[in-house]
Amino acid sequence: MMGAAARGRIRRNARALSRSTPPFDPMADAYYDASHLQRFGHIGDHAPDLAEKFFAWYQAAMGEGALSRREKCLIALGVAHAIQCPYCIDAYTKNCLEAGADAEQLTEAVHVASALRGGASLIHGMQMRDHHDSLSM
Predict the structure, then answer these.
(1) What are phi and psi of 23, to 5 degrees?
(2) CB of 70 within 8 A of CB of 99?
(3) I need a labelling partner for 16 at 20 to 30 A (CA). Which of 27, 72, 78, 130 fits?
(4) Is a pLDDT exceeding 50 seen at residue 120?
(5) How far apart are CA 113 and CA 82, in angstroms?
(6) Cα dist. 101→45, 53, 75 in Å?
(7) By the 8 A CB rule, do 45 and 79 touch?
(8) In Å, how far are 93, 115, 116, 132 from 128, measured between CA atoms?
(9) pTM (predicted TM-score)
């Protein structure tokens, strides 16, 4: 059990820290910088052979095939939300619009990805239940 003196030190330290720490500004030191997207082509500056292979594969995967460009862009937008990549969300929102998708289709793609991600989290609950059952008396 913690004594009154220890609780007092914790409170004083917390007050001092709150006075010395500026208010939280989520955009002040944001990791995401929209200008990075414009410079993505430079990702291979120090490994051009690997970048060339990646971009060739990417172009082949995203090109017309059994799925249309619009369908592939909608899939990519859904995946972007599932993996929570702000760069991909920005890029594929734009790509979807350029490929002829509308706001309703973009929103539905996000809901499909979210439902799948939610279901994947829920199914892991069966793992928890199995582990619970094996530990329970």
Answers:
(1) -55, 145
(2) yes
(3) 27
(4) yes
(5) 6
(6) 34, 29, 12
(7) no
(8) 36, 20, 19, 6
(9) 0.71
Rounded Cα distance between 96 and 102, Å, is 8
Angle at 70 between CA 60 and CA 112, to 5 degrees: 105
Q: Which of 89, 91, 123, 128 is nearest to 109 (CA)?
A: 89
Closest CA to 75 of 49, 112, 120: 112
For residue 87, the one-letter residue type is Y
**Contact between residue 83 and residue 95 where contact means Cβ atoms under 8 Å apart:** no
DSSP 84: T
The C-alpha atoms of residue 117 and residue 58 are separated, in whole angstroms, by: 24
Topology of the domain covering 63-135: AhpD-like (1.20.1290)
Which tokens in the block code for residue 21? 């720490």
